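Methods — Computational structure assignment.
A single polypeptide chain was analysed. Its primary sequence is given first, followed by the predicted tertiary structure written as structure tokens.
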Amino acid sequence: MNANSRSDVWLKAAVIGSVWGASEIVLGSFLHNLRIPFSGNLLAGIGIIIMIAGHRIWPEKGLFWRAGLICAAMKTLSPSPFIFGPMVAIFMQSVLMQIGVLLGGRKTAGYLIGGGLAMAWNLVQRIMTALLVYGLSIVELYQSLVDYLYNNIAFPVSGYWTPVAVLFGLFFIGGTAAAIAGIFISRKAAAGKNRLSPEFSDILPEQFGSIDRSQHGFSIYRLAGIMILLFGGLYVLYAYPIYISIIYVAGFITVITLYDKRLIRRFVYKPGFWVGFVLITTLTGLFLGGEQGNPAFTVDGLKIGIEMNLRAIVVIAGFGAVSVQLRNPVLISWFENKRMKHVFSAIRISFQTIPYIIAMIPKGRAWKNPVTVLSGMIGQMDGYLEMMKKEERKRNTVFIITGKRGTGKTTAVRKIVARLHTGGYKVAGIMQPEYVTGGKRAGYYVENAASGDRMLLCLRNESSVYRSPVQFLFYDEAVVFGKSALSAANSNGADIVVIDEIGPLELDEKGWADAIGTLRSQRNGTMIWTVREKLIDDIVKKWNVDDYVVFDINYTDADTIAEQIEKRIG
């Protein structure tokens, strides 16, 4: 798969993931406020419908898991601090949907298998969550309850796995039903006239701007501290007496409350937690203290129940704090490299467009006819794709700073870069300020735009008779230094790459030509070039630049140019 096709499939996944994420945000809040039972399964069913419908529009390889990754990232927009579990569920549902299609093919059988597996993941994750939250004691409690039921109620079958298998089958059937609905709704959408209107697809409102670049409240050290407290708590609960565990959990709650009060409100203001606390403690007191299958209330069983609930507090609050840190923009930058550029480009565009998609989703009574609403949402996917493509092109603009020789192009670029650095943008690339001696320009430096480090690049060749590219003698070490600053390793994580300047040497396949070619083929993102006015046409033709904006510094000052660039890249 070449770079263009990878970018295209990620944009299609961004559309599906954004529509799925928008439905999670809109319907999730609605179902939560109404306290509708099995709301998680309803949301999973809608996710299956959207995935299948999107895949029937664009039957691309790897589309499902990519859409799931985008949708999982959208959960960071949720006001709830507890997003880790839902993010895992969404991504695993998309992976299982992908596996189903691999097993059954890109047809009805594959969709049915994938839908069933995706829905069944809800049961698997609940079991895994219970094990994580309550520990292995929950298995003992489950076995005791099953033994009690088998001893007192006549069942035609037995075994600890039987109830789990029955539930798995019910979930799988629910998933296949959602898959059938997805096929039906996609056909209805294809036959309908629900398309994004042109006036909306041409404009992406600026108020839906960019991801917040501030790092307030985020810290790698804070994340490490949370992880230490979390796993330290699990160790204390395992290795020490119950009274020490209670003291540790009390301190843990105090720290977490200072970190984010919302994380503790999950316990204090949630009647469901206290009902579960009493129920777990009572059941363990009855079933884990005496003989298996014969309930008898004991102090040992009571202690086990209290320890399980203490563990639940530590795990739920701890992972809630971890979920808050998942919003950390610094963490995202760690993963931004050449192989991940399409991922983060798609995620950024999804963050940019999802408020608009949410605004387009019908609210309230319109959901009395969910088939019509969902077919309308799916029918707009082609329009959303065009909107995202326009946004991607806008973010991949080359800004050309031009002017005649000696008019201050490099000076203007240095001012622009300084302003972008101040605004929190990561800038990579090179600038070539003059080397002046005796009041005359004797050569040029090459300066790393990210670090400010510089080396003497070239000196005037005094023996040169003709004005030509060979009038300067270049230092090999400085050329290597400049190419390193332009390399993928140093530029792919940047918001903007600066190349000052591109001229006759590059047109003659010398200078920075090979580095420019590599950047153009491997990197999506904004670039700033300085180019002499008479060379612009040749240079944009040589590197196939379709989307570019020219600023002549004789007519536009550096601050105005920087402001225009900031508006364009968000």
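Note: Residues 396-569 form a domain with the Rossmann fold fold (CATH 3.40.50.300).
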